[in-house]
Design goal:
alpha+beta, single chain, binds zinc ion, 6-stranded mixed sheet, 210 residues, 5-stranded mixed sheet, 24% helix
């Protein structure tokens, strides 16, 4: 598996490109910004992008999706519960003092238990509402790797004070879905350093059983 992580944009969202070494087919996750750099990375590995997956509809994760779709022809996938947030990208841009990326069109909704594929690589979609209603994580069972979006961070969890956020829901998503994964699962959060399910189960203050 080819996997490169590139922090993009002013909020340094962790963009991922995940490719099959044999077929050179790839999926990319959260192309928030810096699409020139993203395209260089894809070209460096000689990959063909098959899916553009958005973990949730915050501007720092989805802002560059249309540019990347135009450059690659790949469809954009997002859970339908975040379509309302996606229609507020101009409002989100104003909150953050960023420029409005314009309208983003979704080609397909992805939800719990769906599978996303590129070449021989397959990821299970886990619906983890809380940070937003439509937040999803991607789990690669063979590689024991989780792309967590803004649901789980090293030592913290996603904020729930923005529209569509719910602390009760994110805690339930974390305990019922992410903590069900094996301890040696590598976690790639939406921002900041990598971690593992075991490390977070033991030390994350939000995950201690109450
Ligand atoms: Zn977010």
């Amino acid at each position: 598996m080819i996997h490169e992580i590139l922090p993009v944009g002013p909020l340094q969202c962790n963009f991922s490109v995940i490719g099959d070494e044999a077929t050179r087919e790839a999926m990319v996750i959260d192309p928030g910004d810096d699409i020139e750099d993203v395209l260089s990375l894809i070209a460096k590995h000689n990959l063909q992008v098959k899916q553009i997956i958005i973990t949730h509809a915050h501007i720092d994760h989805v802002g560059g999706a249309m540019k990347l779709r135009a450059a690659t022809g790949a469809p954009i996938l997002l859970n339908q519960n975040d379509y309302a947030l996606l229609r507020m990208l101009d409002v989100q841009a104003a909150w953050l003092g960023m420029s409005d990326p314009g309208k983003v069109e979704i080609d397909l909704s992805i939800g719990q238990a769906d599978t996303v594929q590129a070449g021989s690589l397959a990821a299970e979609v886990i619906h983890t509402p809380g940070h937003t209603e439509g937040s999803v994580c991607l789990y690669f069972p063979l590689e024991k790797k989780l792309i967590a979006g803004d649901t789980l961070f090293a030592g913290s969890i996603g904020r729930t004070d923005l529209p569509g956020g719910s602390l009760d829901k994110i805690i339930r998503s974390l305990h019922e879905k992410l903590m069900a994964l094996p301890d040696d699962t590598l976690v790639v959060p939406g921002h900041g350093p990598l971690t593992s399910i075991g490390e977070e189960r033991e030390t994350n203050p939000f995950l201690q059983r109450r």
